[in-house]
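Objective 1b: paired records.
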Amino acid sequence: MLNKTAKNLIAQGNALFSERATLDSLWQEQAENFYPQRADFITSRYVGKDIAANLASSYPLIIARSFTDAISTFLRPKGQQWFKIITDDYEELDNDSRKWLEKATITMRRAMYDKESGFDKATKQVDADYAIFGQGVLEIKPNFKKVTIQHKCYHLRDCAWYENGDGLIDTIFIKRKPTALELKATFKDKIHAEVEKMLSGDNPNPHGIVNCYKIVIPNDDIQPTPNGLKHQKSYTAIYLDIDNQHILEEVAVDEFGYIIPRFQQVSGSQYAFSPATIAALPDARLIQAMSFTLLEAGQKAVNPPLIATQDAILNTPSLEGGAINYVDYAYDERLGEALRPMTLDKSGLSFGMELLQNKEQTIAQAFYLDKLNLPPIGGNMTATETTARISEYIRNALPLFQPLETEYNSAMCSLIFSVLARLGTFDPNVPDGLKNADGRGKEIKFVFENPLIEAEGKDKTQKFLEVKAALAGLLRRGPCWSVLSLSLSC
């Protein structure tokens, strides 16, 4: 059972971060090779630092970026309504109920893409964290000032969490570093006396950092209040001043408030891994070493080192255009040129380039890019060949994106709907068709549209056309097939 005292919460948070400290080293190396913008897990980065200075090739970064873009393209394709609110009995709903759901879908999309919601920015960051590190942390909360929602992505370095017995994340600790001025603006007179001194003491430091924890824990794990009652809501959100062991705020909340999609988990750990970067990391290291070696070899090939005869050259040799190099007049050129390029064996360059291209192809395969591109269709291909290619494409891509629809898209949309409903965003006049017999609303679900589902639809359409073409051929054999032809046409 979790103890709510500040001291115990700090100890629990510190233990949680200590348990996963070695993950920071792995994430740091993955970031340095594939996502240098995030390469500050175990190092501090100053503004203006060349974050890719350790790289000799940008190819792993480009491939990782392409995979990240593919995730957002498949999950949230631009320019279309990629999600739809439904119920289990959607096909049996009356017209008013369907119209209410359609209106709610439009309202929800408008709230998500509001310019102040931060949806695009936050989800793009979560996509990248998911692709490279195997998980991302997205917070969705109401913005009471604007009566809308806010989306925020947190750095994995600052997050640690627990799973419950069902394997679901229900406890999270997030490190925060607000200034004393920020704490005062947010929590007013609830701040600790030491923070007040930072604002108005003898040596004020209003922009000084105060280490804090942002915590969400389930109420089942919280000790009863002094009067023996528990909160009626599912979770408690706590903001804790670590430096002064002081709880700034404790609020009961309806939802966990965080979506943490996880790529691939192994038993015994609440943290996931990205199979893409795990497979590509050895080749990424090798590509950087090979690129550096080939760059050196290429430089020597076009600007080879020189051989100079000792004492024959009177000045420091210069290779600039129009430069003059003086040779001792007594030197006999029959003994060899006084200054000449060194003869180098360049045969290894082509082999090195071939090997480098092979490793680049391996990295692209590790990031599933060979499975994500729709195969070329058309030309002289038969209908059977077209169907086979689309079917193969779907079989390769579905295992990658189907789990994401459940753990990322569906979970995110469900939380957004819940927050917007509590804010009173939707039409309060809910039709009776969307209510159960006891008067409570029916369970809301989501269906999604994306390029993969479209391809699957094309696959089914192609199969139907094949059957129709076959039946058309049979029709020419006799009139006995006319009834079947009519039913298919209808």
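Objective 1b, second protein:
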Amino acid sequence: MTLHGIARDAKGGAVLITAEKIPIYVEDIASWPPELHYKQITAIGVLKKKKFIPDPKIDKNGGISQGAIGMQLVLERAKFFLKKNI
């Protein structure tokens, strides 16, 4: 699948933010390289909905860890390029 959006970093890793403001996590990339960060990019890979970010946990004292409930959109085996203006 080919996706277009802005390269951003999130606590869960590198994300591609689509025009619809949907975050797509990019598997195996903790953060974007500086030359792509905050840039319009095109990414090609396999898009799946799966559990990518662990659920938050509540400790015995009621403290809640960071996490995300549910599944996330994840781009696997991604290749990415700067989006060219035509």
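The chain has a mean pLDDT of 92. The chain has no helices and five strands.
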